[in-house]
Structure formats: C-alpha cells, structure tokens
Amino acid sequence: xxxxxxxxxxxxxxxxxxxxxxxxxxxxxxxxxxxxxxxxxxxxxxxxxxxxxxxxxxxxxxxxxxxxxxxxxxxxxxxxxxxxxxxxxxxxxxxxxxxxxxxxxxxxxxxxxxxxxxxxxxxxxxxxxxxxxxxxxxxxxxxxxxxxxxxxxxxxxxxxxxxxxxxxxxxxxxxxxxxxxxxxxxxxxxxxxxxxxxxxxxxxxxxxxxxxxxxxxxxxxxxxxxxxxxxxxxxxxxxxxxxxxxxxxxxxxxxxxxxxxxxxxxxxxxxxxxxxxxxxxxxxxxxxxxxxxxxxxxxxxxxxxxxxxxxxxxxxxxxxxxxxxxxxxxxxxxxxxxxxxxxxxxxxxxxxxxxxxxxxxxxxxxxxxxxxxxxxxxxxxxxxxxxxxxxxxxxxxxxxxxxxxxxxxxxxxxxxxxxx
Length: 420
Known about the structure:
It is built from 16 helices and 13 strands. By secondary structure, it is an alpha/beta fold. The chain folds into 2 domains: 8-120, P-loop containing nucleotide triphosphate hydrolases (Rossmann fold), CATH 3.40.50.300; 127-419, no CATH class. It has a 6-stranded mixed sheet with strand order 7-8-9-10-12-11, with helices on both faces. The protein has a 5-stranded parallel sheet with strand order 2-3-4-1-5. The two termini are 24 Å apart. Residues 303-311 have low confidence and may be disordered.
C-alpha cells in the first residue's frame, strides 16, 4: 500500500465515513477497487478463495464477528454473502465494503436498496494520474462562478501517451512493451475466463475479438449496433446471430467493460427532437487502442509516418474524447451529477458531454484536440446557449497550455487542469 495512488472516490468515502454502514465499489477488473477498500478495512473476506467461502457457509455469523470495517472482496463469486451483509446492516452490526468486478450471475434475494450504497470506480482519471494539479473544478463549474485560470506544459503527445497507458493502477506506469503484454493478457482473460464465469462459453473467440475491435472503432460515436456488426464482419455473409451479439454486449456490460454515454433528454427543456442513442465507449480508451492495434506513434502520425494515415487523426480525437469522458464521469460522481451527450435527431447539433446536477445545473463540454479552439469549434455550444440561456455553463476541453475565458464567456480548459 506504500505506492497507493489516491483516488477521487477516496474524498467521497472520507466525507461519508461513519454514515454509511455498507458501500459497494464496482467496476472493471483492475481499476483499483480492492486497493481503495483495503485502506479502510480491518479484515477481509475473499469470495474468490474457496477457503473463505467454506468458512462462511459453515458459519454465516462469522461475518458479524470479524473486525470491522470488513471488506467482502469479489462478492459476486458467492452472491449469498450480499444477503448476509444486508441482514447484518439491518441489525446494526458492523460496517462493510463490498467490491465486485462483475454483476452476479445469480442475483441476491434482496437488492440491498436503502442499505448498500454503490459507487462505480473507473480507471484512473487525468487528475488521478498526477500529470498536473487541476485548477478548474467541475463542482465549482456546476455551482456557477468558477475561476478559470492555470497553465500546464502537458501537450498533445503527452495526452496520446495517456490514451495508450491504461488507467489500471498496476499497469499504468509500466513500459510501453509491458503495458501491451498486460493488455493482451487482460483481453485474453476476458474472452477465455470472464465470459465462461458469466455463463457464456465463447465458441468463436475470433468473432468476439472482431466485434470488440469494431466497437472500439466506434468510440465516441452513435453508430448502430448493426453497423458495428457489419464492421466486425466485412464481406461475410455468415455473420453472428443477433442473439449472439446481444449476449456479447450483455456480458461485457456485466463486466463493466462498456461505459456508454446515455443521451441527454432533459425534462421541461426547450430542446426538441433529440436523438436517444447512446455514445459508445469502452471502460478505458487504452483498451480501445489495443484492440485496434495502434500505439502512441501510430495515433500521432500513422503507421507510415504521414499525419492522418489510417484515419489516425479521427481516431486520436475519438480516443481523447473518451479519456476526457471517463475523467469527467469520475469528477461528476464526486459532485452528485450525471454525464450524458447531446445530439439532435438529424445530427446538425451535438455536444460531447453534458453534466447535470440533481438541482438542474448543467455544464456542457466540447472536447477538442486543438490547443486554441476557434469560433467553429464552439458553434454547438453557442447554439445550446441560444436554446437554454445562460443557465448552462459552457466549456471547451483542449490540449492547450492555458485555461481562460473567451470573449463570448465560454471557458477554455486544458484537459489536465480540469478536476473534481
């Protein structure tokens, strides 16, 4: 634990310490759930170890006698433990952390609503990667009147490095070659072990791998699922059945490996005819880059050295947007807000990220690779202001050096300077 990297979620847990008797941390394997919970636990039950489960089967009250706070790790491997925790909470016995890297195949008999508070843990946000100290707070942007200033030396090549460096703490700081090897092992484990554990034996691993790559290529788009399937099977008449592809999606969602952005559909808004399709996104943009077989060099200049080769300009933009989206989702959670995207039905207007707080406060964010956004880059934000008025804070997240407000009031914020 000497090398523990503090997470935004730590601030939430610190604030709520003593008030919540049971907290579930869920998310994809490797994002750091167990490390975060272990720092707060006095004892641990590991449900992926048969010895711990056998003792608990024989003596269910053991869960109450262990030192608390108690961490129940990988609880989905023995779902019955959820009900044991829920009953202990009802009896005001102990405090608990539950961590899970998949939805349970067999659901507990009780949902835990009102007893267990759940937080999703995502891969490392930009603020958690310690590239620069954030100077612009999303929470303050939502509150109104945020100060927009700060300078950084982080530039586009650094962001591309972060796109290809997984936000999994144990992998992030490895050499590029070691990261590639670990990512390949991660994908292999998903296909060969995680899918069967979720009840789906993959008969054609190559077909699943091709679908994953096609989904990765659709990052930051609203491409239809039939379009993704066509991209995964170009020129093939014998495509996987729709039920097979749906099973892929269901398992990947249960493993928290898909993190799509829902469409923003505000109630009582003057906005009409908004598209309802989600924007596709894997849990980590490094997974998308790996599945597509591109490294930082390829993203910056293409495999043959020409800028834009293999569409790398479009791809790096999409993956940069995904990196920012994952980060903003982490910051929004700390501000009790939700993140979505906006797109009109005809696609003539779209906003990359819309962060909305429970009280209706909204921050609209465009993500641009450019260091200094032009009027053309902010045209959709200006359109949104015309529709909703000044109640919406408008922000452009860039790869530039300086945070400032444009003459039209739109905030320009380098990605690493935006934080919780």
